[in-house]
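WARN no homologs supplied; continuing
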Amino acid sequence: MAKILLLAKEDEEQRGLLAELRRGDHVCALKEGVEEALTALEQDSPDLLLVAATQGRYAPRDLKELVQACGGNSRIPLLVLLTQDQLERYDFSIGLDDFQVTPCRPYELAARVQQALWRVGKMPREDQEVLRCGDLLIDTSRYEVYVAGRPAELTFKEYELLRFLATNQDKVFTREMLLNRVWGYDYFGGARTVDVHIRRLRSKIEDKDHLFIETVRNVGYRFRPSSPAG
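OK structure emitted
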């Protein structure tokens, strides 16, 4: 799994691009403005920056600034999407890592992304560090959680609760068992603590299309990722 930052104006084409990248087990964030992208490069440490220059929204000076920022942030590769017309007059001396002429087939772009990640040693981490359950992805090396490629901001205890349930799919746990396994045997809080954390966790990772935690009446909870809710 790699973290990809896409700089583009959100439209039908870019939404399709995001969906394609996410199908390749990449986590993607979309930013429309250059300043937003620069902030994300500094704060979010993406593995690759992909710029849709085909939309004509980003001037050469913008790309130069982005190239400089990528060079100063643990060597983040920068890949640019160009049209055939742009290719004939583009200034590659600014230091781009690679480019892709559009329109292109999805696997072509995926190969470019993969190659750029290889060059800087940022290939996706080993499978044992990533737990995937349907559209839910838990990166155990970074303590990060994503639902359909979008980050979920969890507290540490919410993360630990989710990770425990997800690694024990279909097993039913009472509130007391969860207190012991997640909070520890020396925790003196009541069982209501579990209910509160489950409720908060659901509010952050579930919606009408994604259901993960099932309440077993009069017993407790279990993790059972479902198909999109109908």
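The radius of gyration is 21 Å.
OK
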